[in-house]
Design goal:
GO terms for molecular function: ABC-type quaternary ammonium compound transporting activity; ATP binding; ATP hydrolysis activity. Its EC number is 7.6.2.9. It comes from Cellulomonas humilata. This protein has helices at about 1-15, 70-75, 100-105, 120-125, 125-130, 135-150, 155, 165-180, 195-215, 225-230, 250-255, 260-265, 270-275, 305-310, 330-350, 350-360; strands at about 25-30, 45-55, 60, 85-90, 90-95, 105-110, 185-190, 215-220, 235-240, 245-250, 295-300, 315-320, 325-330. Residues about 1-20 and about 350-364 have low confidence and may be disordered. The protein has about 375 residues and is an alpha/beta fold. Helix 6 packs across helix 8. The chain binds adenosine-5'-triphosphate. Adenosine-5'-triphosphate binds near residues 65, 68 and 71.
Length: about 375
């Protein structure tokens, strides 16, 4: 783990070296498949998409089936060639980079992974190091390090074959394989889609930890808005033709959908999602109340946890700051006030969303 961390700082320096260049930039990119011809003017799978992925962020593309998410992702590593427009990787036009070299700089994880069935876990993870000519010792050390990183004990798993793994374990091997040559960018297409809901949640959490450890830039595609808001630093909600309906933080997407299509996607679970995303702040609190008894809450706790703590309690609960001082009290009304604050704040941040949209002339 230590050596991985060191590599992160190396990478941070190299990324910072190119100022604030996006890690990946789509500039007026369109893709029409042969079958799109005859669909009319706006029938392209991706229609004039401009979007910048910032270094070290997790940018999630979410939207309905067929809106062009996978096509967008696959254009980044040239599994699909754009019909027009330009895609830049750390300031370099991807069409000028040999596709094989390009894919070594961009890990790729898909649903159902596509592990080689007759190769062991270790051999699967070692695929790319083998292709690029690493020696056995270096490869073996890397495989062990990566299996540890994705939570698979090398002694137990390295010699197994894919059919001897659960769906979640296979997906972890896929992530390890994609990270083998330490790419600065990881593209993920429905990476947890084939895993049951509980395993999926666990994988999401573990992947978030891995992403933070490595500082890797991630572009992730999902049709699941909950996955999007849980995983993302920023969410791009797409509609047909990969048209950007809204590009914003998860909280802004949920608290203040910019268009009916986003509102539709966020849907009826909106309040539940806000409770998970929002945190209790000092400004939400009721005054210190001598009648407040019971387990103290802390400023900064998730709003959903505040509600949980209030269930079955008669009267307010005391709230402490990080030094342990009681700074106020909380009731259900506190939570409602916090939800109001979140939706108001999202209105204020519309200006930020506009600025995002303008980054590098990135929107029509
Ligand atoms: N190889 C292809 N040939 C022709 N048309 C294609 C091809 N791949 C995708 N399309 C079409 O392009 C459009 C966008 O597809 P894409 O797979 O990018 O969407 P998506 O948002 O990833 O969908 P899903 O969530 O269902 O995977 C769809 O209308 C699809 O039918």
């Amino acid at each position: 783990m230590r050596s991985l961390t060191l590599r992160v700082s190396d990478r941070a320096t190299s990324v910072l070296g190119v100022a604030d260049d996006p890690a990946i930039a789509f500039e007026h990119v369109s893709k029409s498949y042969a079958s799109d011809r005859g669909r009319g003017e706006s029938g392209a799978a991706v229609d004039d998409l401009s979007l910048a992925v910032r270094p070290h962020e997790v940018l999630v593309l979410v939207g309905p089936s067929g809106c062009g998410k996978s096509t967008t992702l696959r254009m980044a590593n040239r599994l699909v060639e754009p019909t027009s427009g330009r895609i830049m990787l750390e300031g370099e036009d991807v069409t000028t980079v040999d596709p094989v070299g390009l894919r070594r700089r961009m890990g790729y994880v898909i649903q159902n992974v596509g592990l080689f069935p007759h190769r062991t876990v270790a051999q699967n993870v070692a695929t790319v190091p083998g292709l690029v000519g690493w020696d056995r010792k270096r490869t073996a050390a890397r495989v062990e390090e990566l299996l540890d990183l994705v939570g698979l004990d090398p002694d137990r798993y390295a010699r197994r074959f894919p059919h001897e793994l659960s769906g979640g374990e296979r997906q972890r091997v896929g992530v390890a394989r994609a990270l083998a040559t330490d790419p600065p960018v990881l593209l993920m297409d429905e990476p947890f889609g084939a895993v049951d809901p509980v395993g999926r949640r666990r994988l999401q959490n573990e992947f978030a930890r891995i992403q933070r450890t490595l500082g890797i830039t991630v572009m992730l595609v999902t049709h699941d808005i909950d996955e999007a808001v849980r995983m993302a630093d920023r969410v791009a909600v797409l509609s047909t033709g990969a048209h950007i309906e809204q590009l914003a933080s998860p909280l802004d997407i949920v608290a203040r959908p910019a268009t009916p299509a986003v509102a539709d996607l966020v849907g009826r679970g909106r309040t539940a999602r806000l409770l998970a995303l929002g945190r209790l702040e000092l400004a939400d609190l009721d005054p210190v109340d001598d009648a407040a008894r019971g387990a103290s809450l802390a400023v900064g706790v998730e709003l959903g946890d505040v509600l949980d703590a209030l269930v079955g309690v008669d009267g307010p609960l005391p709230v402490q700051d990080e030094r342990g001082l009681v700074v106020g009290s909380a009731t259900a009304a506190t939570v409602v006030r916090a939800l109001d604050r979140l939706t108001e704040r999202a209105e204020e941040t519309d200006a930020t969303a506009d600025a995002d949209a303008a980054v590098g002339t990135l929107r029509r």
